[in-house]
Amino acid sequence: MKFEHYGIGILKGLSVTILHLFRRPAVAQFPEYFLNVSRRTRGNELIWNREKCTGCATCAKSCPQGAIEIVTATNTVDNKYEVEKYQVDTGYCIQCGLCVEACPYDALFLGYSYERAKYRRNDLVQSDDALLESPARPASGYFHPEIAEKLPRQTLLIEKVAEKRKK
Amino acid sequence: MIITEVAAQATPAMQVTPADWPGGYWWHWLFFSVVLIVFMLGMVMGAIYIERRGMGKMQWRRGPNRTGPFGVLQPVADALKVLIKENIVPGVADKVVHWLAPVIAFVPVAMIFAVIPFQNGALLADLNVGILYIVAISSIATVGVFMAGWGSSNKYSLLGAMRNVAAVVSYEIPLVLAIIGVVMFAGSLSMNQIVAEQEIPYILVQPMGFLLFFTAACAEINRSPFDLTEADSELTAGFHTEYSGMKFALFYLVEYAEAIAMSAIITTLFLSGWKGPWLPPWLWFIIKVLIVFFVMVWTRTTLPRVRIDQLMALAWKFLFPLALINLFITAIEIIVWPDASQWIFVIINIAIAAVLVLLWSKRFKTGWGRIEV
User: Fold this and answer.
1) Which of A10, A16, A17, A32 has the highest number of chain B CBs within 10 A, making it the mutation to test binding with B?
2) Count of CB atoms situated within 10 Å of the CB of B206
3) What's the predicted TM-score (pTM) here?
4) A137 DSSP 8-state letter
5) 3-class SS at A127?
6) Cα–Cα distance measured from residue A158 to residue A138, given in angstroms and rounded to the nearest whole number
7) Would an 8 Å CB–CB cutoff place A158 in contact with chain B?
8) For testing the chain B interface, which of A6, A8, A11 should be mutated: the one with the most B CBs within 10 Å?
9) Looking at A121-125, B295-299, B326-330, B359-363, which range is the least confident one?
């Protein structure tokens, strides 16, 4: 005689929920704790390498949102394009990473940032030197396995990736 | 001076029936009215906190934890928010009905507390038909709900209200039949007398009655898994879809006040009310009410919402026959062995309840086949 059909199912369910009372919650309390994101994450920022960039504008063409604006001029002395303006409106960015994948010279990377709420849409526009890599804005390993290899190994278990914010 | 008067009045009121009703009646009335309103609002605040926090924990989240320590001020913040919100009435609504509905839903719930004993004799009115009064009064809240659904001129509101009426009409029967078993054992309809008669809690003597009453009470006050009235995935918010501001707050208050009232009735009927060792009686009462409410939250978190045909099938095919059988068995026990110790009935009744639940869950079918519970 199977007791599954005689109210035992309800008792099982009740025991599951009551045991959850004593478990550690599976959520990180955001402003105090933040998630240590994956090293291959697609963040909300672009990291741009001015030296490698040739101004071919493949990134701008591949962007489904048209968020990348690039203005180039011809440098007749060195016989190459000179990038005059490289501007990304991260308010439009959907973090798809197509620009990074499209770049033929590996001059474009995604960052880790995800806390970029601003009061003005204009504040979301980043251009030129603001896009360069810096210790505060490291490049993510997305589409660049050579970067991902160098980053420390990590787990994505919720108990391990939540870090307390220093302040 | 007033305080001494009240204290002097409160002490003789501890008797089963106040000896001098005409003399001290108004002090008694004033004192307990204030106590009951404070009790109801305070318990509703506590209930909202327990529900949101407990549900959060059971769903493996944290629940509200921003306002005050551990989020205890969350109900206060909610109340303040809802108080200053705009009151929107639909243009095609039946204005008078729409305006009256929250009041009519609220008043009967507040009136239930009049006959709930906090300790021996400490109740607003020790009616000798207390439990009958509760059954009569608590059904009126449904009229308020139906008025809300009708007055809103909204299909979702009306559907929710109609489901509520259907559920209440069906579940009233097993509810009342479950009460009768207790009443027969206690030999009285007075709530205070029922508590005084309980040497062992009636949950042991009447286990079947307790299960029936708990299920029917959950359905009666529209708590999950029977919250078809405000099934938010189907009916947005059911009967209070078109309510906002203070009127919505009243419905919210009614929802939790009903849950607290049902917990209090279960405590009184089945958990020996204010009786208990060491602690003061009123504290025992409040602890038991909160425990019962916690069990309601627990079942709400665990069980998924039933369909409307399952709801009706459960009432008429499962609870109703079981309630009738329970009633007959109780009557036979009382007539045949009037002087036997209640501990014998504890064993017999628990065995009978187990057998009946097993038998009936095997036979229980809804329109489209077995329901597996």
Assistant:
1) A17
2) 28
3) 0.79
4) B
5) strand
6) 23
7) no
8) A6
9) B359-363
Strand order in the sheet with A80-89: A68-75, A80-89, A125-127
Q: Which residues of A touch B363 (CB under 8 A)?
A: none
Residue A39 has φ and ψ, to the nearest 5°, of -75, -10
| pLDDT level of residue B91 (50, 70, 90 thresholds) | confident
Beta-strand pair A125-127/A80-89: antiparallel
Chain centre to alpha carbon of residue A137: 11
Report which DSSP code applies to B316: I
The domain locations on chain A are: 3-164
- Count of beta carbons in the 10 Å neighbourhood of residue B336: 8
CB B244 within 8 A of CB B87: yes
SS3 at position B117? coil
**Four-point Cα dihedral B58, B59, B62, B66, nearest 10:** -110
CB-based contact, A31 to chain B, within 8 Å: no
Cβ-count burial B114-123 (b if 16+ within 10 Å, e if not): bbbbbbbbbb
Question: Which of 3.30.70.3270, 2.40.30.160, 3.30.428.10, 3.40.50.1980 would CATH assign to domain A3-164?
Answer: 3.30.70.3270
Rg of chain A over all Cα atoms, to the nearest angstrom: 23
Provide DSSP, B144-163: HHHHHHHHTT-HHHHHHHHH
Q: Is the confidence metric ipTM above 0.85 for this complex?
A: no
